[in-house]
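Sample pair:
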Amino acid sequence: MSNYQERANEILARIDELAKITEEPGIVTRTYGSDAFIEAREKVESWMRTAGLETRTDNIGNVRGRLPGKNPIAKTFIIASHLDSVVNAGKFDGPLGVIMGLDLLENLAENKIQLPFNIELIAFCDEEGVRFHSTYLGSKAIAGSFETSLLDKADKDGVTLKEVIQKLGGNENRLSDDALKEDLLGYFEIHIEQGPVLYDANIPVALVSAIAGQQRIELVFTGVAGHAGTVPMGKRHDALCCAAECISGIEEFAIDHKTNIVATVGKLEIVDAASNVIPGKVKCSLDIRSADEVRLSFACNALKKIITEICTNRNIACTWNIIQETDPVACDPNLNNTLHQSIKNAGYEVVELVSGAGHDAVPLSAICPVSMIFVRCYKGISHSPLEDVEITDITAAVKVADNFILNLASNYNQ
């Protein structure tokens, strides 16, 4: 299992090929259930089939390829990432892990290496949650934690998730049939870092020790709309000014606690906005993350108190609606010990990082041990067309992945 440079070149060529499959010419946009998503899914399934994997697409739209081990009833090890993207995305977030997993299985098959366990490669259909504003649709179905209430959720065009599943050829009533019920050895995901640590340190790969938990909240500020020219400044109930003070308060709190949490307001909507109207209603998002469950809870409660006090002082009503909650996830110590040795044996410095971004490993952690490595990306930029990974770093990740899977095999106890 050598020729790492050649394999890295082939991985990059396939990523480039997938990047051409997009909803909008000139940029990478591939949301769940779109024609571009279907084309990309079919492309990956064809590559899996050519590699000799036992291949199928499940009801929600995940592509799954299986490489049986010596003993078909042995445990199964999952390698996975996702195929969907955000709008105007980079080409590496998700597909890098899928295509590197495919490369690993191809080379095991080509070299006739039979492992003592089975491997299932999964290209998840929706990790980003762009279309239905609910992340991890594919991996939740695999983990058996899919919420059936989501089936009636509609996208911006009024198309429901149930209708998309049917368009993809799936049966929304049989999603539970696809959940992994076998004995699992673990889960492994290769992903770009989406941060600057590796880039700044000039280190190609890192071991992920944990994934931050998060709360996503919708804040709705309700004041009183009025004429911009006739309502005196001291008699206004300006929802936007209140929201602005709250946003500044959120930033100030997060900076004061920057070693433990991050907090972001990424969306702001002025309802019925006009240049000559005092804003009466404003909506904004709030994203709070921490790898420590206690500190995450503390931050959420503290920020809610800060916002409530500001709104009370300004006589503005505010609702705090939790959109999504995920607990922090610790990666498995045993798998990480093997990863640690695999990185070291490949000749690289071992760096441990906490992921501030969520990954499909989060739902999978409920049913099996999980592990991840990060690959350096240009300036840590992600969710952007500037997203880039150098061929030397892909080569390094190939070496580490090879070492990891072979070390797992040598240490395997059925």
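The chain has a mean pLDDT of 96.
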